[in-house]
Amino acid sequence: MSNQVIFRQDMLATFEALKEDFTKSLQNAKKQEEKFNTARHNFKQKMAEHITKSNQRLAKSNPLYSALADMENILQATSQDWNEKIQKQDKGVSFRAGFNDSLLVFVYGKVKSGKSSLGNYMAWGHTDPTPELQAQTSESFHPEYFSGERTNVKNGDAHKEAESNKSFRVGATEATSSIQGFSLSGLTWVDSPGLHSVNAQNGDLAKQYVEHSDLILYTMKSDSPGRESDMREILELYKADKKIVLLITGSDDTEEDEDENGNLIKQIVMKDPARRQRQIDHVRKTLEELPELTGKSGNIDIIAFSARYAQNNQADADKFYDSGMGQLFAKLHQIASEEGVKLKQQVPMKNFGHFISNFTNDMSDFEMALEELQKPIARIHREVPRLVNEESRTIREAMKKLLEDEFDEIEANREDDSFVTDALDELQSILLKEHRHLLEKSFANIVIQILSEMDKELQATVKSNAVLKMPKFEIKTRKTYEDEYHAGNKRTTAATGAAIGGMAGAALGLVVPIVGTWAGGAIGSVLGGWLGGKAGNEDRIERNIITVRAGDNLLSIKRELNVQIDRMTTEQMNGFKEQLIDVAMQNADALKHSIQTEIQAFKNEVQAIKREINEVLTH
Hints:
By secondary structure, this protein is an alpha/beta fold. The chain is built from 19 helices and 11 strands. Helix 1 crosses helix 13 (325-361). It starts with 7 loop residues before the first helix and ends with a helix.
């Protein structure tokens, strides 16, 4: 920077010349703001709809319900946080909107670091202007004061005090407790409450408005420059891409001397140049030690000055320049003429870009909640198969015992075919009824442990799927042969015939002499025996076919029923397992996908707005 002296009136003339350019070049973020508000509204509305719809389908004891409740709490907390952010943003934007035709300079720093004194000098050319001095100033150069939001801390400035007094209060105590300032043609100067004081409200108020400034003058006292707390504040401003000039105030000493009459007098003198430079170097070195500012501290101007010394030496160009105030005016003149219009154009766009970035950062809370939602989902995938296996084993054991008990009675009466047939018919109904009962009980046990309620769709499925086919009872028989001996009477009839024949032959011999009695008897005996033999039966054996009961298929029926029950249990339980997971996961997965979609859609909208902002800033 050259040693050309820029006085206050020269600097103010520069701002006045640029007033019209400030107005023309100002670009607000209205278009991007409207897009963002639409995206934000859609995100909140759709998220609330997804969560409400899912909550209506789940019991409160459902593990998914708890995860959804957390998601809903995050949505409510985020909505409240967003509303607060927007209120602060709107407050700052409204504040800034009143000064669209001027460069908005915000004086920021610790309590009692010379902010108000500097502001008074900028407004009137005096650190503590009296009403008499103000009256001597031309009306055209009178600053127009304004007051903004204020805190109610003890000993703070009164309501619209600066407007009433047309100056800022200065003193040993913490004087400023409101956003207050003044406007001159092309320049708006804001005096803010001090940071890091016992009245935290004051510092908080200052932080709400500082981001809406075009240029920040950060003040620190020369008796303690470069404190860590100051460096932290400066770093945050730099990260927010703010234009900053660091001011080391009070760079003067009070010396005692004698006047020409030998009277002891006190006079204000500047600290020697080497001492001031050491302080500037110390502050820059401290900035360089911050990792984010290493190699970048040169982008921040540092000026050491004394407003009191400048006030006492306004007529002496060399002393005025040496006060540092001339350097400050020169820097403000340079910024206004070279960067002022660009700053006026870019600041609201940059502010809005940083503002909406905070909203996308909040998406991490929802993403963490999605991870929590995944935990009960994983539990369902893990626990359902295990519980199904356990319950299947229980069903099989219970059904096997029932089958054994029922067959004990049937087997005891297996000779009674009619009883067995009727008992098997009844057994089919008993087995089906008990199997369905056991299935429903097992399904309920599983659902209670996983989802805490039985889904109606699953109940209907359970009651309609169980089928058991009863095998037909069959009696086994075999054929056997039995010989039956029948004794004949042929010998008896032959002997009888012979005797009768002999008698008849003898009688014939008596009648017929030629035959003779003896011959007639012999012939009669032979003929009688033959005839008697013909008339009698011989001995015989008869073979009869006999059907014998060899057994039945009761054992086979029992085995077949066991096989069917096992198969039926497996099919029913596997079907239930798949359907249960489908029902449970369909809701959870759909919700997870919906939320992921909404988060990504919101991020995409914000990124698109930021790209538009960057395009404007680039050109």
